[in-house]
């Protein structure tokens, strides 16, 4: 039943890169290097609990790009760490009910699903769907 719920939730989060099989990335190493250069000043996931609200949306976008690249390359454990950091940053910077938290939650949930951890993924994906429906409308 949990597996069916996880699959259903993944389809409900349609519209993002995570709703389908990962698309091939042109020059993944170059993308990863560019993202890593951009986020060189962002704390690592080990220091995620020390993030402050001084961060801007630029750091959040860089983390989302890095997490997406890690997911697409099959490095799901790294993607979980990166999306966890992005979710914490989004919550701290914009609030837990902000539409800016949808992408980090969706990425974290899909990365957990890829690691065969549906019990942890389902609440995150359900929250992402609820935020999406509340802020963007029922059919978005």
CATH-assigned fold name of the domain at 28-39 and 55-134 = Serine Threonine Protein Phosphatase 5, Tetratricopeptide repeat
Q: Tell me, what is the CATH class of the domain at 28-39 and 55-134?
A: Mainly Alpha
CATH architecture of the domain at 28-39 and 55-134: Alpha Horseshoe
Q: Give the amount of beta strand, in percent.
A: under 5%
The run of helices and strands is: HHHHHH
Helix content: 55-70%
The CATH fourth-level homologous superfamily of the domain at 28-39 and 55-134:
Tetratricopeptide repeat domain
What profile does the largest beta sheet have?
A: none
Q: How would you sum up the global shape?
A: globular
Rg measurement, Å = 14 Å
- The secondary structure category is mainly alpha
- List the total number of helices: 6
Mean pLDDT: 74
Q: If you had to describe this structure to a student in words, what would you say it looks like?
A:
The protein has 140 residues and is mainly alpha-helical. It has a domain at 28-39 and 55-134: Serine Threonine Protein Phosphatase 5, Tetratricopeptide repeat, CATH 1.25.40.10. It contains 6 helices and no strands. It has helices spanning 2-12, 28-38, 57-72, 76-94, 102-114, 118-136. α1 (2-12) runs parallel beside α6. The protein is globular, with a radius of gyration of 14 Å.
